[in-house]
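Hi, here's the filled form for the chain we discussed.

Project: internal
Contact: R.S.
Residues: 154
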Amino acid sequence: WPVSLGRTVLVVACDVGDAEATHSFLPQANLASVLHAAGVLQDTIIRSMTTHDIHAVFEAKALAAKHLDFAVAPRPLVALGLFSSVVSMFGNVGQANYAGANAYLDALASSRRRHGILGSSLRLPAVRGAGMGATTFNKEQLESMPAISLEEFA
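And the returned structure, exactly as it came back:
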């Protein structure tokens, strides 16, 4: 739909967990909006969680969002969209690191709005047939959680 509105969509593979890569790419792009949809799961119960488990999840979600926030700060964006998870509100067994990283996205969007800068965090449940809902969970797991169908998401 953006193309039909006269917009150009640019999908870029960039490790936004790497500040240098993020800052070197973004100045070259003429951006109106940025969507951050990265995510990594490293599920384990909290008493067994290692710093590696925490870092792996926080780098893809929270640290990457922080780098994007700094990199786009001087630009008059129409939107900065951060794809978060309902786990940030409700938690989930074995996902303390994921909940914390998503809560950071929620807080970042809130902070941007408090400072008069656009930012939204969309807390999504698992989506059957898309993203982590298509690659991470089996049918039984998806049925036991508040997952939505791809049709409901669209």
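Let me know if anything looks off before we file it.
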